Amino acid sequence: MSTTPHPTERLLQTVTGPLPARSVPGPALAHEHLVLDLDRKGDGAAVLDAQRHGPAVTRELAALREEFGLGLVIELTCRGMGRDPDTLARIARESGVAVVAATGWYYEPFHPAADLDGAGVEQLTDTLVQEIDAGLDGTGIRPGVLGEVGSHGETPTEPESRSLRAAARAALATGLSVATHAQLGHGGLAQLDLLTAEGLPPERLCIGHQDLLAEPAVHRRLAEAGAYVAFDTVGKESYQSDEVRLRLLLALLEAGHADRVLLSCDISRHGYLLTEGGQGYGHLFRSFLPAVRSAGVDDDLIDLMTRRNPLRFLTGAGPEEF
Question: Which residues bind a divalent metal cation 2 (predicted)?
């Protein structure tokens, strides 16, 4: 399919340049990490290193493109998480899978002191807008989303509130959307209230890790408000069983909110890679979605959740598009 945009074409900002959203041929992974460093214990577990693990990541994505038509990865490694835009661009080129990079701040334990200490919301907003306009870390590679902007607990801490508010303001200034990290699924409603209070339309917001929160009423409230609800830790059985995830997802679908669902695996340590015996980025396609189909969900709804919804989230497109 041609990538020459129509004058009114909605574009994704990927690590290899602008891409017409309609040219994404298949499903997306809505919340992943391809390179990151969250190592706080010194054991190197919460790491995806460019040199040691990058080739395996590339091979996994290329295989998923061939087997399932994987067309897009939304990569939510932001400031303070070991972000590496050049490696993301190389993985995208070598795998043939488009990658959208991110800016923003994770939750407070991972806030870089140089960024957050003493910085007000306006200063933080300026930092984000500059990265969105000029590129990440001096590379010229521009982000296409704000995220995973984080909080932990039922309400954000003061620094988390500043970073979330800055993300909302930067999103409004640049036209990007915001994906959040809600630690273990908690605090999503508070994130929704804070971000929308800054003027961010709920349809430009995705609340993260809701499959870790076994509270269907919260999922419904988020969806009814118009926000996207991320079931994005699929396969992380040590946090939540996929059996429970499936039950929670079916409840949200039965409530009529398939158009608010985003799905992914949130691969965040090298032990999750196939080469190391983990479930890999393809667990969603190889294991979870077959279970969803077996529960009676048809292919149109699966396409909605895995392709159309991610494109609408990133671009702000309406339900009639894609």
Answer: 148, 181, 209
